[in-house]
Design goal:
Length: about 775
Amino acid sequence: MKKGPSQRNIKNALCKFLPICQKEILPFVVLQLFTHACRSLWFLLLSTLSLAIVLFSAGSVPALPLLLWAGSILIVIILRIVYVKQSLKKMDRQRNDQAQNQRKYLLFFLSAVVTSILLGMVIPLFIPYIHNVFLHFVLIIFIIGIAAGATAALFPSTLLAVTYTLFITLPLISYFLTLPDTYAFISALAIFMLVVVLTSIAQVTQSYMLEVYQQRKQLQMKEEELDALFTQTPTPIFYFDKELKIKKYNEAFQDFFEISSETTLDGFDLTQLKSQEAVEMMREVLKRGEPREYDGPYFSTFTSKDYWLRAKIAPLFNDEGELIGGIASFQDRTLEIKSIEYLEELATLDPLTELGNRRSFLQHLEHLVDEQKKGDLLSLLFYLDLNHFKPINDTLGHHFGDLVLKEVSRLLKSLVPDEAMVFRLGGDEFVILHPKCCPTEEEARKRGAVFARKINKTLSKKLIIGDYRLSIHASIGIIVITPQMHNSDEIIRRADISMYQAKSRHLEYAFYDSSMDENQRKNFFIHQEMARNDFLNQLVLYFQPLHALGCSKLVGAEALIRWHHPTLGLLTPAEFISLAIESGEIQKIGHWIREETCKAFIYFRENGCPLEFISTNVDARELGYNNFTKEILDLLEKYDLDPSNLVLEITENSLIDNFERYHIIFETLKKAGVRWAIDDFGIGYSSLSYLERLSFSILKIDQSFITSMVTSSNAAFLIGHIVDIAAKLGYQVVAEGIESRAQMQKLLEISPNIMCQGYYFGHPLPREEFCKLLPAKEA
């Protein structure tokens, strides 16, 4: 029922004028008052009723006043009991409502005071009618007992306890003071001292209660903080006892395993979990009393999901240090592990072809090498490099080149058996790994050769991209992996060597053998030696004579480089020039050759061996250096040579491949008077149109034609036509590699205007020995 304005006004007025309402009352005090009153009021009710019955039975007390007094006090007590019980029910909901607590305390205070006044009135109302000493004693004991009991019940409020005690004992004290008897005065004084003692007890008890309250409040706050920390922390946590049963878990645990709020896991037996690895870890914690950590897969018992968890499990001890269970917290690493696995997959996958990449290949090779140690079976490794793939990219674009690589990957995957794997190392290089496929090396080599030919046959016939039908071949290096091979890097190195061996020799495939390794080591050593500061000091030029066939006159020479190595001995150009081209050392070697050639020309002239010209070889890649033309012109000027004294030789294949790129250099030097010679003519493209466009000065017929012309009419016929065409286009012709008189005579029959070069006329010699040459042999 809602309270009316008059009721609120009365309470407001009381709150304004009563000092007890101006002081803030702790909710705890109010709660304690009502809690103690709930028990003490029933005792007071029974005591008062008992006293009323005793007094009524005595017969000396007037009935009407007794009934009025007893009725009033009993009604007040009953009303208080009802109010206290109702207030206690609402107390939890209104615990933090300070205004409500003030009102409850005020009503409780006033009702208690009214009760004490009514109880104290028993003395002035009824004692004059009582002449029985026993009844006198009963009344005194009743008042003192009620005062003591009130102090014990009302101690949470010292003010109320003192007020209640004073109001109930003051009439008794007054009664004793009115008596002339000395003992009565002493009794009054004793009762007063009792009131003082009870007040002190109430104050001490209240102080102790408040101290306990503050301690409990702090403890409760800590418990609430810990409970909030446990409940609200985002990390899933649960407790378990020594029987491995769940005692408590937090919200994060419940949310993680998608446990509904209607379902409880309290008391769940952890031994029923699917993942027994985690259960064994908990057993270890309980057994050893030490924390452990579990990091691994977890198959959920509560959901159908699988996780990867990192769990930290620690033992729990009570205050006596006794193990009572454990606590576990865990972190969900499922997404992290899946991301790592995905990244590892990406890291081992070639994005273009979806084949395994170099990293994947290395991992599988390492695994194969470890596995193969335990058995006798041999494995095969095919190292493929696509020939002439760069022109496809340059001509049709990189997108088309990517399509070619995808199609090659598809074809290779279609060729290999299920147990074999295909990898793309990068660019146009692929690897096929066929593990443990052969019992003997002989069978492995046969099988490897057959499969290598099958690869090239497929690539040459079935590579169709859009409107293009391509014919691609691969250079394939093959390694037979034996159980004795334990070094993956060494296997890859040998595969690479064998692949380049196949490429350099224009073979479909090549098996590794130790001679390749020796050549590789030698080439590496030569590479290093060419980088030394004293490298050029070890070089020397040899000169091979060129004769005019018709008159046998020594007309020129070809400068040929040699390397006097301190440990390897005399090296020919075939042993180091190709390496110099690869490493870029050819630039400084070429410059040294041309300068030494100029010096040699002057030397020959000054020592009575004048020549019309000296030729020297040039690699097409030397023309790509910015200063090549200037270098030639500067050398001619430095040594005061006629430009026609220097002939630059370039091979036919090198010339055709680079003609458009270096055409300006050819023309510039030709206009300056420097003569160019086409070397090894007839073994390359042999394009007559280039002869016309180039307008070079000299054409050198390759030795292969000279060797066979004595026994082959076709070779002689071709040489004759080459000489005729060259003469009509203004070329001088040099025949290389003449080693016999018969060859010389055959050439003389074809044309006496040919110049000749070969061992028949003289071996390459140092310049000092070259000057000592005897007059040329007569024809």
